[in-house]
């Protein structure tokens, strides 16, 4: 397959729907229009500023322009088309690397829905591994419905066996047979399907009978033997050879097993309970969470060795070697984007010398001479920060703020700590300060004119970091959550979150679990500024646990008239607080999520988080679960500037483009910077 690039942003603009969104049946509803309708009017463009363009999404396209959300299974048809299970979708990849949605249960669009038979009214729920037959049919595991589905080349779906998940495996005719936890599937030359179900291997005959051929469901072990006396631990991927033998990736045992047509199970490679990456023969070799297996025409077995991030080869004589390894997990210098893959999840052979593997969000081809290329999608690669560049960035960035020189400061979560990095106006990334020994999670971040950072740590503190990187406490005490005004360490907060500076140099802080905005003066005196009915992310009992990480950032911004804006991602609204401390809903409707543009309460958001203001008083919102950045004028008119609620994944070019999970926004020197899953992107000239 040779990917041919197409100008995806232009296609997006030409095909985006111009529909009217239905709001509530009130006077405000008539003011609401769909986000896509107004975003088409935008000028300007977006581009990658720092980080990686890869990562999850749901965008169809060609080659690396396509995006996948969470890949779990891969199969190939006789024409060389690939099929992958992606979240609640099945996607098709042609030999020209064109990606389309073959079947979907996550959308109501008629062109992406399964053409269900009358007896198959349920949608596929979390499709898993799959296998193709000689007629082009695809058999896919419906994991949450514990059933096996058949999809014809025309997209017609039917249930082969199973139904609702049960605690007990039931062997019987297919219409009453039941499964407990389907993980792998294979097809032999006689038309028998084999599935790994809990800790058993089960067989579905062409005559419609289901039986257990090896192991016992929900009984764990590592024993070789015949039929029900054998034991497995989390068997996953399966593959059948021409003689009818089934090879099994026994995931939690870290072994590769063989099941003969007579029902005899043996271990051909690896040793149960001994994880590792050593090569060798038979039980001298080691694997770490093998998940998928494939066979070539010569009888070699290829294993997706997940934790080791390798593809291993097992010869017919049982000798294990490394066939392909990304090889650069600890030293990524020189790694090309096409050759780097994340831990593989599944593997399939085309029978002609090529292998195809999937990781979290991309599909790769391995040639017979072990050259790895990316067929479709683009994974976000975790690279240590010393190798950061506009091409590579470490794990997902979080909060972000800009100083007067245009430098960005970006937080990076590495559980259980958070780091801060600095990005110059030219996009050069460096470590600003290593705070991992002092902070649990920096939930809020702001900067003053002198380059001092102020950080809100969710464990209950506000601290100051000088331009030289020296940290000093300002208010609160680590792991001492509560509600108390006072000076310095006498103050108490309960999950401090968003933070901003007033024109006088005071800190305003969103105290999430206390449902307050608190004020901390330059000399560390804390008082209560305003009360706001923020949504609660957890019960109070969990908040009391030390080092709690809030799942929603309450962004905060202050305009030139001293009005304060706070994002409530739980209630999907933006609050406005007057200088006197009086709060009201500025945009959105409490508890009503959506993506409609409109005026004030007619607009809808879906987990809004980061906020920033431009010089004209326009407010920009990182609308995370809509994969969009929204603009709110001083009069409260909401429009969509970047992204679309129906598209996930980064697409550069003319606005609106496409984003993936934006969390923070910063307006600096006429440009809008957005922290997304992939990295930091920048919008200009809008």
TrEMBL record:
Cleavable signal peptide: 1-21
NHL repeat windows: 225-262, 593-635
KW Isomerase (keyword) present: no
Keywords, sorted A to Z: Repeat, Signal
Superkingdom to which the source organism belongs: Bacteria
Gene3D superfamilies: TolB, C-terminal domain
Cross-referenced InterPro entries: 6-blade_b-propeller_TolB-like (IPR011042), NHL_repeat (IPR001258)
Protein name stated in the entry: YD repeat-containing protein
Organism: Undibacterium pigrum
């Amino acid at each position: 397959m040779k990917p041919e690039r197409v100008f995806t942003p232009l296609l997006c603009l030409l095909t985006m729907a111009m529909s009217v969104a239905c709001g509530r049946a009130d006077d405000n509803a008539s003011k609401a229009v769909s986000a896509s309708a107004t975003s088409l009017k935008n000028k300007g463009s977006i581009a990658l500023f720092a980080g990686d363009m890869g990562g999850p999404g749901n965008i169809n396209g060609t080659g690396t322009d396509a995006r996948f959300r969470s890949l779990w299974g891969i199969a190939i048809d006789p024409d060389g088309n690939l099929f992958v299970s992606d979240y609640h979708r099945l996607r098709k990849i042609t030999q020209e690397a064109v990606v389309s949605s073959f079947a979907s249960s996550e959308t109501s669009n008629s062109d992406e829905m399964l053409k269900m038979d009358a007896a198959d009214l349920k949608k596929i729920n979390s499709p898993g591994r799959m296998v193709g037959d000689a007629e082009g049919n695809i058999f896919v595991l419906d994991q949450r419905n514990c059933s096996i589905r058949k999809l014809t080349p025309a997209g017609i779906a039917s249930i082969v066996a199973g139904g609702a998940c049960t605690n007990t495996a039931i062997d019987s005719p297919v219409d009453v047979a039941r499964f407990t936890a389907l993980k792998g599937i294979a097809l032999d030359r006689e038309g028998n399907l084999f599935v790994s179900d809990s800790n058993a291997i089960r067989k579905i005959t062409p005559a419609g009978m289901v039986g257990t051929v090896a192991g016992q469901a929900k009984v764990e072990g590592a024993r070789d033997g015949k039929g029900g006396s054998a034991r497995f631990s989390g068997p996953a991927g399966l593959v059948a050879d021409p003689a009818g033998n089934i090879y099994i990736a026994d995931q939690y045992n870290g072994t590769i097993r063989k099941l003969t047509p007579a029902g005899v199970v043996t271990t051909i490679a690896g040793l149960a309970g001994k994880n590792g990456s050593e090569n060798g023969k038979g039980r001298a070799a080691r694997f770490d969470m093998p998940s998928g297996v494939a066979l070539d025409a010569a009888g070699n077995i290829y294993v997706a060795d997940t934790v080791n991030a390798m593809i291993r080869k097992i010869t017919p004589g049982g000798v294990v070697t490394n066939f392909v390894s990304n090889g650069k997990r600890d030293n990524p210098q020189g790694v090309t984007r096409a050759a780097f893959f994340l831990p593989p999840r599944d593997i399939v052979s085309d029978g002609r010398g090529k292998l195809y593997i999937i990781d979290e969000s991309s599909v790769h081809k391995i040639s017979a001479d072990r050259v790895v290329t990316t067929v479709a999608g683009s994974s976000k690669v975790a690279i240590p920060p010393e190798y950061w560049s506009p091409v590579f960035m470490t794990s997902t960035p979080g909060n972000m703020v800009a100083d007067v020189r245009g430098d960005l400061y970006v937080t990076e979560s590495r559980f259980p700590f958070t780091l801060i990095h600095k990005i110059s106006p030219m996009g050069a990334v460096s470590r600003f300060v290593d705070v991992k020994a002092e902070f649990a999670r920096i939930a809020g971040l702001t900067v003053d004119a002198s380059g001092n950072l102020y950080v809100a740590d969710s464990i209950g503190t506000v601290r100051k970091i000088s331009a030289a990187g020296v940290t000093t406490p300002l208010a609160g005490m680590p792991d001492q959550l509560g509600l108390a005004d006072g000076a310095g360490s006498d103050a108490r907060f309960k999950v401090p979150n968003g933070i901003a500076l007033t024109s006088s140099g005071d800190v305003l802080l969103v105290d999430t679990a206390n449902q307050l905005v608190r004020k901390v003066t330059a000399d560390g005196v804390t008082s209560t500024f305003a009360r706001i009915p923020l949504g609660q992310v957890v019960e109070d009992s969990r908040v009391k646990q030390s080092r709690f990480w809030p799942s929603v950032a309450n962004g905060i911004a202050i305009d030139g008239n001293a009005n304060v804006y706070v994002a409530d991602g739980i209630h999907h609204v933006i609050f406005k607080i007057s200088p006197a401390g009086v709060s009201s809903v500025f945009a959105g409707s409490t508890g009503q999520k959506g993506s409609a543009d409109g005026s004030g309460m007619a607009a809808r958001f879906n987990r809004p988080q980061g906020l920033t203001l431009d010089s004209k008083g326009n407010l920009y919102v990182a609308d995370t679960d809509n994969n969009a950045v929204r603009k709110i004028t001083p009069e409260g008119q909401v429009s969509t500037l970047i992204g679309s609620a129906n598209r996930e994944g980064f697409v550069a070019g003319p606005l609106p483009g496409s984003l993936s999970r934006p969390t923070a926004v910063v307006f600096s020197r006429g440009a809008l910077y957005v922290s997304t899953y992939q990295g930091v992107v920048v919008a200009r000239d809008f």
